[in-house]
Amino acid sequence: MTGDSERSVGKRYSYADYLNWPNDERFELIDGVIYNMNAPLRIHQKISIELCRQLATFFLNKTCEVYAAPFDVRLPKISPKDGDIYDVIQPDISVICDPKKLDEKGCLGAPDLVIEVLSNSTSSHDHIRKRALYERTGVKEYWLVDPNNRTLMVYKLVNGVYQKLEGYYDHETITCGLFPELSIDLKTVFPPHPPGYVVREYTGIRTEVVKKEPATRKKPASKKKPVGKKKQ
Fold first, then answer.
1. How far apart are CA 133 and CA 21, in angstroms?
2. Are 206 and 199 in contact (CB under 8 A)?
3. How open is the CA angle 17-21-22, to the nearest 5 degrees?
4. What is the Cα–Cα distance from 16 to 218, expressed in whole angstroms?
5. Cis preceding linkage at 191, omega within 30
6. Are 108 and 80 in contact (CB under 8 A)?
7. How many whole angstroms separate alpha carbon 160 and alpha carbon 139?
8. What count of other Cβ atoms lies within 10 Å of the Cβ of residue 59?
9. Contact 65/57 with Cβ under 8 angstroms?
């Protein structure tokens, strides 16, 4: 998810309210509270699109379907009526394997896999609020992609509680517990390092060093000595 969150005070909004808001703005609802969403940064889109492309290729001609934001996922607690739904989110990527959950408005019910690409402004929102919501509503697997640290964290739902399975660095290949045949080489997901960038690992702690190349100086142009007259 990308963007700033803004809490509206004094009213709990439902999906019925959500449907009346402007189409040119993006919002999410968590427990009836509005969260505004800004346009994502370029690196966010680059990572999200590449993951979506690889997932769509893997699920081609299979039951599961892949959707990218903006795509409404409604998570009802009481009933599926628009006025009774207070959790409406737009995950960066959703994988839904139950076709009965899909309708013209999007998805009604928890996706099987959700992926969020972090940004500086929404890191805590995705780590805390959305993870708690996905856990409570039964999203089986949750991936958090961190463009700054170039890592991907996997959470799997076990007995109704998320267990952190493993963290992956940008040079590793991720495997999916839900779909054992799925593997993604993260070198193809994260943009290449800039020239001179060096990655080193010490005892499991990753240290990144930017190697500074010595500045190349141009050789000053040689001054031509004035040609004097030859002595007779």
1. 23
2. yes
3. 170
4. 67
5. no
6. yes
7. 9
8. 16
9. no
Residue 138 near residue 157, CB atoms below 8 Å: yes
Interior/surface letters 41-56, b for 16+ CB within 10 angstroms, e for the rest: eeebebbbebbbebbe
| pTM, 2 dp | 0.80
φ, ψ (nearest 5 deg) of residue 100: -70, -20
Taking Cα atoms as reference points, which of 43, 51, 151 lies closest to residue 91? 51
Give dist(CA 74, CA 29) in Å, integer.
9
**Token digits of residue 218:** 């141009």
Other beta carbons within 10 angstroms of residue 193's beta carbon come to 13
What pLDDT does residue 54 have?
97
Largest CA distance in the chain: 113
pLDDT in tens, 205-225: 444 444 444 445 555 555 555
Name the amino acid, one letter, at 217. R
The three-state secondary structure class of 32 is coil
Q: Decide if pLDDT at 159 tops 90.
A: yes
Amino acid identity, residue 162? Y
C-alpha torsion 169→172→178→182, nearest 10: 140
List pLDDT tens digits, range 19-35. 998 877 888 999 999 98
Token pair for residue 204? 């499991």
Q: From 84, 90, 70, select the one nearest 12 (Cα to Cα).
A: 84
